[in-house]
Structure formats: C-alpha cells, structure tokens
C-alpha cells in the first residue's frame, strides 16, 4: 500500500514538474522565495496597528512568530528526522528526471514540507483572526500556489505538501487557541489593555483597511510577474 502511494506521488510529481517554461522558471523561483513577501507581512502589521492598541499589536505579532516556529520546527526538527524521506531532487531513483531551477536542490529530506506548513499555518491563523472571506480566499490561494511552486522547482513531492498542509492547519488552530486563551487571563488582558479591543477581537469583521493586505499581495505578485519577463535564473 505504502509503495503504491509513493509510486503515485512520484508520478504526479514528475507530471507537474515536467510542465515548465523559461518564464515560469523565473516566476516560480521568485514566488517560492521568502524575502519577496516581506511587504505582505508588513501590511498585516500595518492593518493591526490601524485597528488595535500597540500592546495588542505586539502581542499578536508574538503569536505570529510562535505560529511559524511551531509549524516550521514541527516539520524540520521533529517529523523529517523520523521519516527521512529524500526530496525528489535528492532521490537517486528520479533525481536525473527532475527539473531543477537555478541549481537549488534543498536539503536532503523534504517530508513534510516546511513551506506548506508555514504558509497554511499563516492562512489558517489569518482566517481565524480576521474572519474576512476575501482575506481568507487570498491567503488560501497564496498558500496553494506556494505549494505548487515547490513541486515546480523540484524540491517537494505532492505528499510532502499535503502533510505539510495538515501540520500548518494544526499549528494555526493551536496558536489561535493559545491567543484567545491568553486573552481570557485577567493579568495578561489587563497588561495588554485588551478591554479596548475586546469587541474587535470577538467581531473582527469590523476591522478597517483589511483590503490593504490583499492589495499589497497582488501588487507584489504583479511586480515579479512583470520582472520575470526579463529576468532568468542562473
């Protein structure tokens, strides 16, 4: 059974990874990078700052950091050493068939995917924090495309991404649970001046300027979509 699933995983991977063009090499390589999304992350903090008092903004930012730490470390430090499944770019059985972009093969093991865990953890937390359909849709699509880029550049099987997604949703739900639990503790709530933002946290649909986050994300994508017309990976 396991061997059949792994064979199917390889087949799906090779099919998707084999569909490439010079333009998509550039676009996917940039999309899957981490630093290009700094404006998007900054826009989230901007919207929080515009709606919450500064102590709540700092506390929520700490929760974002905890969120990524949980998702990332669960994959990289706990699960990968247990399963030790090579990335497709490192798998002796198919490595020669894998389309690699810019020579980047990643580390030895790729199950589950940290990229999938991190992006879906963020998408889940955003969904629970803002309860905004447009934001949720944007971040879910962003996470899905991010997962596809990991197949495209040859560093993850679909199975790596699927289990990374499960880890991400779990990390997002757990972190949001910790977030709300902390706000029920009087000492923490008083220190954060939570009473000022209680209604907003419980009914976040009233948050202002949330469209700034979507606009920033779309503008970021549009920028490197145009840039990819001229730039090519080494």
From TrEMBL:
Keyword Translocase: no
Domain Phosphatidic acid phosphatase type 2/haloperoxidase: 61-176
Keywords assigned by UniProt, alphabetized: Membrane, Transmembrane, Transmembrane helix
Membrane spanning residue stretches: 27-49, 56-79, 109-130, 137-155, 161-179, 212-231
Domain of life: Bacteria
InterPro entries: PAP2/HPO, PAP2/HPO_sf
SMART domains membership: acidPPc
PANTHER family tied to this protein: AT30094P, SPHINGOSINE-1-PHOSPHATE PHOSPHOHYDROLASE
Entry protein name: Phosphatase PAP2 family protein
């Amino acid at each position: 059974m396991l061997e059949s699933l792994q064979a199917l995983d390889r087949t799906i991977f090779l099919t998707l990874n084999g569909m490439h063009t010079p333009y998509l090499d550039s676009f996917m390589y940039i999309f899957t990078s981490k630093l290009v999304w700094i404006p998007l992350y900054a826009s989230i903090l901007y919207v929080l700052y515009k709606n919450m008092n500064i102590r709540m903004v700092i506390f929520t930012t700490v929760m974002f950091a905890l969120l990524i730490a949980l998702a990332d470390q669960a994959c990289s430090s706990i699960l990968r050493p247990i399963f030790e499944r090579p990335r497709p770019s490192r798998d002796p059985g198919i490595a020669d068939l894998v389309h690699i972009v810019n020579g980047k093969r990643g580390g030895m093991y790729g199950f589950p995917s940290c990229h999938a865990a991190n992006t879906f953890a963020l998408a889940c937390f955003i969904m629970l924090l803002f309860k905004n359909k447009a934001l949720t849709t944007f971040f879910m699509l962003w996470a899905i495309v991010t997962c596809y880029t990991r197949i495209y550049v040859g560093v993850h099987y679909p199975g790596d991404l699927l289990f990374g997604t499960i880890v991400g949703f779990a990390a997002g739900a757990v972190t949001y649970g910790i977030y709300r639990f902390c706000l029920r503790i009087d000492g923490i709530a008083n220190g954060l001046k939570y009473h000022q933002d209680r209604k907003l946290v419980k009914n976040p649909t009233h948050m202002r300027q949330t469209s700034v986050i979507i606009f920033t994300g779309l503008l970021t994508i549009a920028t490197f979509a145009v840039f990819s017309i001229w730039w090519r990976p080494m």
